[in-house]
Amino acid sequence: MQDRKNRRSGGRAGNARRTSASAIEQLTWRQVINPDHPTEPLDEAGVQAVHNAAMRVLEEIGIEFLNDDAVAHLKAAGCIVEGQNVRMGRDFVMEMVAKAPAEFTITPRNPDRAIRLGGKNMAFVNVSSPPNVMDLDRGRRVGDFESFSDLLKMTQYFNCIHVAGGYPVEPVDIHASVRHLDCLEAKLTLTDKVVHAYSLGPERVDDVMEMARIASGMDHDTFFSEPRLYTNINSSSPLKHDWPMLDGSMRFVKLGQPVVVTPFTLAGAMAPVTMVGAVVQSVAECLAAIALFQWLNPGTPCVMGTFTSNVDMKTGAPAFGTPEYVRATQMTGQMARFYGLPLRASNACASNAPDGQAVWESMNSLWAAVNSRVNLVYHAAGWLEGGLIASYEKFVMDCEILQQFERYFESAITATTEADLAVDAIREVGPDGHFFGVQHTQDRYQEAFYSPFLSDWRNYEAWQEAGAVWTAERANKVWKDILAEFQPPPMEDAIREELASFVARRKSEGGAPTDF
Amino acid sequence: MQDRKNRRSGGRAGNARRTSASAIEQLTWRQVINPDHPTEPLDEAGVQAVHNAAMRVLEEIGIEFLNDDAVAHLKAAGCIVEGQNVRMGRDFVMEMVAKAPAEFTITPRNPDRAIRLGGKNMAFVNVSSPPNVMDLDRGRRVGDFESFSDLLKMTQYFNCIHVAGGYPVEPVDIHASVRHLDCLEAKLTLTDKVVHAYSLGPERVDDVMEMARIASGMDHDTFFSEPRLYTNINSSSPLKHDWPMLDGSMRFVKLGQPVVVTPFTLAGAMAPVTMVGAVVQSVAECLAAIALFQWLNPGTPCVMGTFTSNVDMKTGAPAFGTPEYVRATQMTGQMARFYGLPLRASNACASNAPDGQAVWESMNSLWAAVNSRVNLVYHAAGWLEGGLIASYEKFVMDCEILQQFERYFESAITATTEADLAVDAIREVGPDGHFFGVQHTQDRYQEAFYSPFLSDWRNYEAWQEAGAVWTAERANKVWKDILAEFQPPPMEDAIREELASFVARRKSEGGAPTDF
User: Looking at chain B from residue 461 to 500, which residues have their Cβ under 8 Å from any Cβ of chain A?
Assistant: First the structure.
């Protein structure tokens, strides 16, 4: 059995590992393409029924837009406005939604890190926005700038993470008025991947867009000539979009920058107890915002987000990676394809530790993403406790799993050329031989199979001899090795200085209001 | 963090649990129906290419049948025989395979535990045949009759386990000559589910069939009028079927009892390094045996088995639940449907502990089973170390996961009646309310969501307060509670005595030869 010493140190296996040149051997950076036909639990009549119900919500019940500009725009568009409540006809909604592109590309400061969303494309985002951070050595604690930076380094290090999304943990040791400045400076210097801006008031959004522009080295017009960064907004379910989310997203939309709209619809809490009802509400809330955005700037990229899960009806606790979550994601996938919109979901779990439960919940969430044809997978690495904890070890474990999906998508595995069918190799080996030695194997074995960096495939005796180290403890060793060898991506000195001076100036001006 | 004491005792959570009336609340016994369309990585030309290659193996290379009776039958059928090598034309193979039923039912001594295989039906089998057993208290050790019996009790206890397959661990404290007698007596009295007989020589097969008949209380003709038990044979890949497997399976076939044919084709070792090539060889080996069986007794139920995975090319160690394994299972699923045969696969993993790796490998294997439309999932609960360890804790963890799939398959989750669409509930709650209190929720909340027995969905503070118990340690507590409350299924005293006296007589005769 695993003992305390080995859980801490990584044991003999850990020592052996230290002799290698780099922390791990990982897959190359790639645009992920999911070739599989999605799983579709709804038949055509079911899709129509969900669509019709979502349209009835928009037509008969309406959505509250807690932002006067948004309401004024929608009134001008012909919607029925009563106070903050906006009702919109299905013809208007469908006309607007049809203007959103089915696929688009976001290009960050390093154009080699551009990602394409929509269709069969898939991209993985780091864990975003937990208040707490955890690792096996220090336990759970409130997030700080050090752990924020560590997790950003892992976001950059792993090729299977495509997007530096929300803060991987909230660095609460930095005052909220200037947090976005320090965080984005770190994000733009420690990573060169697509970044995200929180829609938390005009100053923050404008600051982040300006900092991303500075990091790109481009002038304003060139920078905003195509998607460069994005924001994600959550509705205040049921049936509300709040002021800062709408303000920030409209700033993005006006500059042609993508917006992901993700209602957080826990069935039985802020959405109906039936999963289909929760999907109906989620789709209605999402389309209401996208209709507004397409009215404001037709063709701006928008993504349908889903965060429909269920609660534990005994306690009200949120649950993730459940059977109901998987089906809700698949149904929302069908609706996203019906509307021609890219889809965002998550790698979600409820477990408090990087243990078996965390992995089965995450695997359900990730298989749901795959078989729902999700394009943008939030929280793909590092999430625990329903999003309240960012875990160093879970981050590493998730990246091992993400790499396996990247390999799973490679068409080479199922190619049926004459050489793949291997009849001649079978003939050569015959009934008494072994395939290790034949040329057909020798020509292919180095690339034939996925090679994990975290799995231990030794037999029990060898594993025991090496300290009997369980997965989470092996992951503990891996993140330490990664942080020890981390090198930030290149950035011109002049750009780095311009970023720093922007941050200094904005700090001297007091940063952003904190009373939103 | 989890500490030693809590890992051992289950902590405060464990104490709280002991007050409940039964070990766990579990789902009811059910025939599982998988409604999803399978994932199909091969297009139509790909399926034809694999079929054609498998037929070329059978026509041009041939399979060795290390059993003279089998060879004589195939010679009589018109196959080309050279020594033990048998080549068969595709017309003969396809004509024979077409005689096997696409679906069939196996009815054990308790007819309520009948299972249907083929089509969309799915059934889960306990871990079968590891030499070693492991739990968190006692570590790994060689299997014995006590652990064999414990794992059988768990097989019976969990409603999500449908079949008492092979020995859940080899009880090596019982001499091989009489082991099958003690094992089957235990299996037939501790469980009332479908049982399996190893094809390990004529005496064992005949003894097991006779014992199953005695346990049923039926006469010979009634018992063998339909499928009552089954055997599973593995080819000696590459390209061989050995004597005891053929002898035993032919005894089953003559009595109309089902045979599962499962080549063990590790790509790069006993099969080609290309996954498609390994599938070709597996399909050829499987169909060769099924053609023989259909020649012997047309219409006897046969199942295509797949155990195609890859090795670690650095070490030669077998790997399971890999990306390559998932695709091989999906491709074999396409071939099984092409031939109209039910399909068997496994819940396989390579990990040496019930940890994160074990779960991600198992989840890949189980999602592969689901999206390949596998009918019979071997080793569904309890497998570790590539089948060399039967784990008490993994058994419990797997059953939690299997239950989640059973819930996932329920059509209620995706029903789109007016009540499911919930527009009226959305209207009633409006933008400022909460769904907990409304009638739509109150009418449904008790059955709305799957309720796990092993997941801990409490928040971190409550989980920490209860001892911060990780999943495997919670599972440790669960199996102890299950064994403490276990009650064997009912059996008439007369039948129990007849079984015991059969065992005593066969033991006095010396049991079965051990020189096979």
Answer: 463-464, 468, 470-472, 475
Residue A378, class by beta-carbon neighbours within 10 Å (0-12 exposed, 13-18 middle, 19+ buried)?
buried
CA dihedral B154, B158, B161, B164 (to 10 degrees): 30
Tell me which chain A residues have a C-beta less than 8 angstroms from the C-beta of B140: 460
How far apart (Å, rounded) are the C-alpha atoms in residues B143 and B125? Answer: 19
Tokens of A317: 């606790």
Q: What span, in angstroms and rounded, lies between the C-alpha atoms of B353 and A2?
A: 9
Asked if residue B54 lies in contact with residue B284, where contact means CB atoms within 8 angstroms, the answer is: yes
Q: Name the one residue in this structure whose structure tokens are 């090496």.
A: A466
Q: For chain B, how are helix, strand and coil distributed in percent, rounded to 5?
A: 50, 15, 40
Q: How far apart are CA A309 and CA A348, in angstroms?
A: 10
Q: What is the pLDDT of residues B80-133, one digit of tens each?
A: 999 999 999 999 999 999 999 999 999 999 999 999 999 999 999 999 999 999
Euclidean distance between CA atoms B246 and A201, whole angstroms = 74
- Asked if B239 reaches chain A (Cβ–Cβ under 8 Å), the answer is yes
Task: Determine the Cα–Cα distance for residues A295 and A249; give it in Å rounded to an integer.
Answer: 13
Q: What is the largest CA-CA distance in chain A?
A: 82
Pairing of β B383-384 and β B389-391: antiparallel
- Domain topology for B32-413+450-508: TIM Barrel (3.20.20)
- Residues in a beta bridge with B104: B117
Amino acid found at B362: S
- A449-463: b (≥16 Cβ within 10 Å) or e: bbbbbbbbbbbbeeb
C-beta atoms of A312 and B449 within 8 A: yes
- Structural domain boundaries of chain A? 32-413+450-508
- Sign for the pseudo-dihedral over CA of B460, B464, B466, B469: positive
Residues of B in contact with A429 (CB under 8 A): 238
Q: Which three-class secondary structure state does DSSP give residue A313?
A: coil
**Whole-prediction pTM value?**
0.96
SS3 category, B323: helix
Of B318, B449, B468, the CB nearest to A322: B449
Contact A347, A362 (CB under 8 A): yes
Q: What sign does the dihedral A94-A125-A181-A229 (CA atoms) show?
A: negative
B421 interfaces chain A, CB cutoff of 8 Å: yes
For the segment A373-431, what is each residue's pLDDT rounded down to a tens digit? 999 999 999 999 999 999 999 999 999 999 999 999 999 999 999 999 999 999 999 99
The reply to whether residue A449 touches residue B358, judged by beta carbons under 8 angstroms, is: no
Per-residue pLDDT tens listing for chain B (516 residues):
333 333 333 333 433 334 445 889 999 999 999 999 999 999 999 999 999 999 999 999 999 999 999 999 999 999 999 999 999 999 999 999 999 999 999 999 999 999 999 999 999 999 999 999 999 999 999 999 999 999 999 999 999 999 999 999 999 999 999 999 999 999 999 999 999 999 998 999 999 999 999 999 999 999 999 999 999 999 999 999 999 999 999 999 999 999 999 999 999 999 999 999 999 999 999 999 999 999 999 999 999 999 999 999 788 899 999 999 999 999 999 999 999 999 999 999 999 999 999 999 999 999 999 999 999 999 999 999 999 999 999 999 999 999 999 999 999 999 999 999 999 999 999 999 999 999 999 999 999 999 999 999 999 999 999 999 999 999 999 999 999 999 999 999 999 999 999 999 999 999 998 865
Beta pairing class for B318-319 and B302-305: unpaired
Are residues B47 and B180 in contact, defined by beta-carbon separation less than 8 angstroms? no
Tell me the torsion sign for CA atoms B459, B465, B470, B476.
negative
